[in-house]
Amino acid sequence: MKRKYRPGDVFNELTFVDYAENGKAKFMCSCGTESLKYIHNVVKPGRTTKTCGDRTKHPRTSVPAYSTVHSRVIALYGPAADYLCICLCNRAAEWSYEPGVGGNATELVCPDTGKRYNADLSMYYPRSVKCHKAVDKKRRILRKRLFGRPDSTTQHPVWSDPDEQRVRSTG
Fold first, then answer.
1. Residue 54 above 90 pLDDT?
2. How far apart are alpha carbons 152 and 142 in whole angstroms?
3. To bridge 126 with a disulfide, which of 31, 80, 119, 131 should be the other Cys (CB 3.0-4.6 Å)?
4. Domain locations in the chain as residue ranges
């Protein structure tokens, strides 16, 4: 039987060593740890297995991902559908990040989607889809007026790209 992967094939920080049983394979991590992993979790694009999993050698990033924060909000408060919308118009359907309402003011931006979020779970409120869209639209318009573009990644009127700042200031 012809095998698809050969010893030495590299996937993120894992190097394929040999096939094992039950859909697993032996991998050598860049840190030197050898481990058994399900092949499909390592080799398929978008899968989460990128290292051996030893957090002492591969610590997690200090900034939680957008999806992680929303999972934490749901775990803490439950589904938004269990609440009324914050404006009391209808039953809520989504959790909405409300910047500038107490809590931690460090706003994060998801690099994949450009969506804004915050790791502080106290800054999320239940909203209906209609209200959530309306509030987000108002925020985009305000950011555009203040910063010159609707999805600016800065929190103040200082451009993040020096070349763009020079172009905008010279006309």
1. no
2. 11
3. 80
4. 1-56, 66-150
